[in-house]
Specification:
heterodimer; A: mainly alpha; two-stranded antiparallel sheet; 53% helix; 8% strand; B: alpha/beta; Rossmann fold; six-stranded mixed beta sheet; 39% helix; globular
Chain lengths: 77, 218
C-alpha cells in the first residue's frame, strides 16, 4: 500500500526534473520556482496538494493512453 | 447576431500581464472584419465598465482574461467582474470564454442557468510556465506559448464560425497535438516536463450551455 509519504517523495522526485530556469504560474497563487514548488509539496499545503493531484492525474492519464488517442468528447460538460 | 466582441485584458501582476499580452496578440492576428473586438485593457477591466459595455454593445462573444475562482472571474487589480449569485445575468445572450482559474466549476453552470448562451472555461487552476528573462516581452516567451496558444485557440475557432462545442474541442485538440509533438519529436528533455501540465489544462477545459451556438456565421 502506498503511503502518503511515498507519494510526496515521488512527486518531489518528479518536480526535481523541472527546468531550473523557468517559473510556474498557478493562478492567483502566483509564480513559483522549482525549489519553491518542492517546498510546498513537502509542507503539504494547498499548493503542494495541488501538485500532488496534478501528478497523480498525469499518471492516470498515462494508464488511459491519452497520448495516442483522440481526446474524447465525453469530457465535455 | 451582434458582430461585436468584448475582451478584458487586466495587467496587475505577472500572470495577468502574460495572459493579457497573449490575448491581445491573438485578437490582433484574427481575420479582420469578422468581429469587431473592443478591448477593456488594464484599469478599464472593471465591473462597472464591463457591465456598461455589455449593455451598450450586446456582444456575441466575451473573452475574459484574469484571475478567478470557482464562482468568479476578476479584472484589473483582482476586482471581481462577474460572480455567480451576484451579476452572472450580465452574461445573458453571450458566449463567454474565460481564461481564468476554475470559474467553469460554479460560475459556468450558474451563468448558463441565468441565460448565458454558453460558457467555456476551466474547472481547475490554469497552469502555465514562463521564462523569467522574457517577463518584459511575454509575447516572445515560447515556453508560455506552448500553453497560451492552445488556450487562446478557443477564440480563434469561435471567430472562424465554429460552435462553442467545436471551439472547445479544437482547443483541446491543439493541446493534444502539442503534447504529442513533445513526446514524438526531438524536443528537449526539459520541454517534455511540461506535458503533464498541458494535460492538466486540456482536461480542465469545458463548455457549458449550448454547444451548437456560434458567434459568427461561417
Amino acid at each position: 500500500m502506498t503511503t502518503e509519504k511515498e507519494i510526496i517523495d515521488l512527486v518531489v522526485a518528479r518536480l526535481q526534473n523541472l527546468p531550473s530556469d523557468k517559473e510556474i504560474s498557478i493562478g492567483s497563487a502566483g509564480e513559483f520556482t522549482k525549489d519553491q514548488l518542492i517546498e510546498h509539496v513537502k509542507e503539504d499545503d494547498e499548493i503542494g496538494k495541488k501538485m500532488v493531484t496534478l501528478e497523480m492525474d498525469f499518471l492516470r492519464s498515462m494508464k488511459e493512453g491519452i497520448f495516442y488517442e483522440p481526446y474524447s468528447s465525453s469530457h465535455n460538460s | 447576431m451582434s458582430h461585436t466582441a468584448l475582451a478584458t485584458t487586466p495587467n496587475s501582476d505577472r500572470t495577468t500581464r502574460y495572459i493579457s499580452a497573449w490575448a491581445e496578440k491573438t485578437i490582433k492576428e484574427l481575420e479582420p472584419n469578422r468581429l469587431r473586438f473592443i478591448i477593456l485593457a488594464k484599469d478599464r477591466a472593471t465591473v462597472s465598465i464591463l457591465e456598461s459595455m455589455l449593455k451598450k454593445h450586446n456582444p456575441s462573444l466575451l473573452f475574459l482574461n484574469g484571475h478567478g475562482g470557482p464562482d468568479f472571474v476578476c479584472g484589473h487589480n483582482d476586482q471581481i467582474l462577474i460572480q455567480s449569485r451576484k451579476n452572472e445575468v450580465a452574461l445573458k445572450g453571450v458566449i463567454t470564454y474565460a481564461l481564468s482559474c476554475s470559474s467553469a466549476r460554479t460560475l459556468g453552470p450558474s451563468a448558463v442557468q441565468a441565460g448565458a448562451v454558453a460558457y467555456i472555461g476551466y474547472n481547475e487552476d490554469f497552469i502555465f510556465f514562463i521564462s523569467p528573462e522574457k517577463i518584459g516581452r511575454p509575447k516572445e516567451d515560447t515556453t508560455a506559448e506552448m500553453f497560451l496558444a492552445p488556450a487562446n485557440h478557443v477564440v480563434v475557432s469561435l471567430t472562424k464560425g465554429h460552435s462553442a462545442g467545436e471551439a472547445t474541442k479544437a482547443a483541446r485538440d491543439y493541446f493534444l497535438r502539442s503534447i504529442q509533438k513533445l513526446i514524438s519529436s526531438e524536443s528537449s528533455v526539459d520541454d517534455r516536463e511540461y506535458i503533464r501540465y498541458l494535460i492538466w489544462d486540456m482536461r480542465s477545459l469545458v463548455c457549458w450551455g449550448n454547444r451548437d451556438a456560434i458567434v459568427f456565421n461561417k
